[in-house]
Description:
Layout: E1 2-5, E2 12-20, H1 24-36, E3 44-51, H2 55-64, E4 70-75, H3 84-93, E5 97-102, E6 107-110, H4 114-119, E7 122-123, E8 135-138, E9 149-153, H5 154-160, H6 169-179, E10 183-185, E11 190-193, H7 201-213, H8 215-218, H9 220-242, E12 244-246, E13 256-258, E14 266-269, E15 279-281, E16 284-287, E17 299-302
Parallel strand pairs: 2-3, 2-5, 3-4, 8-10
Antiparallel strand pairs: 1-7, 1-17, 5-9, 6-11, 8-9, 12-13, 13-14, 15-16
Amino acid sequence: MTMHFFPRKHEKLISIMLPTRNRAGHLCAAIDSCVSLAKDPSQLEFILKIDDDDIDTIRIAEKLEKLTNVKKIISPRGGGYYDIHKWLIEMTKISSGDWIFFFNDDARIRGQNWDEVVLYIGNAEPWVGMSEACLLYIPTEGRPFAQEFVMIRRGTFDILGNYGLSPHADNWMWSVMNFLGLVLTVPRVTVEHLSDRIGDKTRIESEAAYAHTIDSLISSAAKRKRLQDVDKLLTYMDKLESELVWLDAPSSWGWCWWKPPDGKKMQHVIVDGVGNAAFLKQGVPQKITPVKDLGGKWAMRTL
């Protein structure tokens, strides 16, 4: 079986987005769950959005910066929950991960070495551009039909320029990517979501907002706007496919080549059927025979 894996392209593996308000203790627990269960915590970074009147959280964030990779945006509260999708854009701009992970301060990651699982997730029959257009779905414990915790390939944000026009950004992105068949489920990793067990003011305010924000996800107007995101991705897919050419003498499996703008050919996927292949270690090509210049795109590993 041949699996396609995602290339490493940026400084960090995962940027974990954490908008938070008045939950300093829960914020620390959420971050600790990610760090303590990670194979390589140095490859994680946490992007916090904190309201400028939330003094306790600001103080905690300053301490967290000394312990792990934390970046923060401190700014006026604005519309609060109503503006989460807008803040996600600003948070992404200061992030440096290959993957953008939507997370909550009332959530806890479950799964030893969960970051390594993400690193080695692959697909046997991917669409050719999946290295940049993909969503990883992490199931929520006890909520099998929820699409609450997702990771977006950074290139997906670059293509779309946003995470939808709704505070329900996770559901928005899942519906767009699932329609195009660009969703993979992360194996052996789940999230425990404590939202219904925390009855604080932040929870009460968010529940009150749902009655107004849900229309931004399920209305006919919202669905038409999601179609615009689908069209952007389809345009990207068409462009990639138009830039792929086949070798005149492919192997029995077939060679897929990438043709960059400068006209220089470099391998998009390498496997020749007789044992010569590029393979990944920690997401980086380690051996490339018989040809050079993989160029940081895709590699292939035979399992």
